[in-house]
Amino acid sequence: MEQLLLLIFIPLAGALITAFAGKSAKIVSTVFSVASLGLALFIALNFIPDASTQFEVNLPWIADLGIHFHAGIDGISMLVVLLTNLLIPIIILSSYRHDYHNPAAFYGLILFMQAGLLIVFTAMDAFLFYIGWEAALIPIYFICAFWGGKDRVRINMKFFVYTIAGSLFMLMGIIYLYLQNPAHNFEINAFYALSLDSEQQGWIFWAFFIAFAIKMPVFPFHTWQPDTYTAAPTQGTMLLSGIMLKMGIYGVIRWLLPIVPTGVQDWATLAMVLSIIGIVYASLIAFTQKDAKRLVAYSSIAHVGLIAAGIFALNQQGMQGAMVQMLSHGINVVGLFFVLDIIFSRVETNKIEELGGIAKAAPQLAITFLIILLGTVALPGTNGFIGEFLLLMGVYNYGIWAAAIAGLTIIFGAVYMLRMYQNIMLGKTNELTITFTDIQGSEKLVLYIICALIILLGVYPKPLLHLTEASVQQLLEQVNQKLISVK
Length: 487
Prior knowledge:
By secondary structure, the chain is mainly alpha-helical. Helices cover about 75% and strands about 5% of the residues.
């Protein structure tokens, strides 16, 4: 109990202290983020990988409305809690090369967002989940609005409207479930136990699915993403792609599937089709991109489409593949955006056609970039392989044609990613890249950590699979039992 409260409190306290830390904000935020990581690792080492909820805290909050500060960790939430606390210090460390104006506000917002994310990933009360969901949105909005690039006002407004609209749909769904609950509380287990008819489940499915699909994003709810990823400051893009989109994936697994399994079953085919369309569509668009940052943004849509397809396959392989790939994708995409930020800091462009020959001047950057890229395209022995293998196996068990089309993401991804690498890093240097300098200082540390994680998790993924297996199995059994009882 105390550990989980402390895990949420550390970044929240860190955000408040950092906001008044002035020029020391960078160091102060680093200390708090590393402390959070240390506590998360302690919790993980003391976590028993069964299906139970552990480190649970349940305190009355707004008792008259049945609202409790109820949070806990199981195998599913443990993975994303680790991802969040692992990536935040890496993201802060990656910013050491920049001198952002008003650093106290910038780093304070990052830590405040971390607290919101941890509430989302541990909440066992729907009202608390919604509060965390909105609390995570507010800081990233301001990070993009104040430190973003060209045309950030228009782009950020589109992002804000999309996400707020999705959140309102989810809020209506939560209120409806509360009204159907005889206990008149927001407890997740009470929502799981509700007996809703097929029509009710269909409406609730869409109320939640739209919110989660926008956040991931899934086609056709994705149009805010490429512009936002491109215009946001690099650390904002890392937060969005590395952690925030996992809120949508986690929401589908934790809330959507167990609460409305009949609704999921009725609409799973459409959700699967949208996911697969997103894979192919985003991959084809990625081929045409001239800006490397936008290419990686579309690549992210394709990878998330495969994760969503694995979830809606509704089997053990697909679900575990989604869990593992959430972690792997977060690590890899943060690495890719950091490499592109390093390149931009040297030559002030991410236009692929304007680059070339960087490997000659920066061999260490070239090697680390290649390792991250190989993890992204799921080369065996890297962290991306086991997740994509399980996802494709899960989709194959759902339907062979679905797997055949979804599998194109591996082929397409390898082509456009390797072609991007070739055009940026290989070939002849030009007047822009001839004076390019290799990575140093914090750049080396960040890239070495990411590359070590890619190789370590690729060679030995067993702990991740063991961590999530029991919880995923219990969730699927719960869904199947509810479906059988309806029949």
